[in-house]
Amino acid sequence: MMRFRLVAALAVALGLGCAGASAQPAPPLDGSPETTTPILPAPPDAAPSPPAADPAATGENARDGRGKAVDELLGRLAKTEDPQTAKRIAAAVQALWTRSGSDTVDLLTTRALEAQRKANTGMALKILGEVVSLKPDFAEGWSRRAAIHVAANDYDQAMVDMHETLLREPRHFGVWIGLGRILQESGLDAKALGAYRKAYALYPAADGLKRAIDELTLKVEGQPI
What we know:
Blueprint: H1 2-13, H2 59-79, H3 83-97, H4 103-117, H5 121-134, H6 139-151, H7 155-168, H8 173-185, H9 189-202, H10 209-221
């Protein structure tokens, strides 16, 4: 009951709808924290690589450049219907999101991912704790920690970190998909539907997302007249 209340409260904080019906397993969807491969390079045909930063450029200018590149890629992602092309664009976005603007934070994030790959969950969480402490505005630090909590079935902590991620990057399609899955498994079908719809607006070609929305729409809203 306590977990249900926490999940519901966080869903409300994110502006999602009312609770749905009974809980049911939800399959992982393309782009969710469970299916997102850490630190993916941008393939050559996904989008032009962001221009290398001018050594004289300030950190602020570099962040602006990344932000513009993310904006452009997300604009393309929202209009792309081909799943394979969309996956490449999504990977390019995720690669840009992993760049914190701090060499120290980037190194720590890489070490956390290495620890996760070696199934050293405790060490990965400890390092990511340092990441979000050093650079709390780094949305991907919170997202990566949420993904580890999801993998460990610690949905309460995952929801907290997802909330922190979306406060900093509300266009994080992977987190919206992962959030939808948690809400669906918690029986909060209407809230799950709201999360999936937010993800769909950003990444409509995500594998399985349209099907999940159609099924939940029928369950929550009924057959259209």
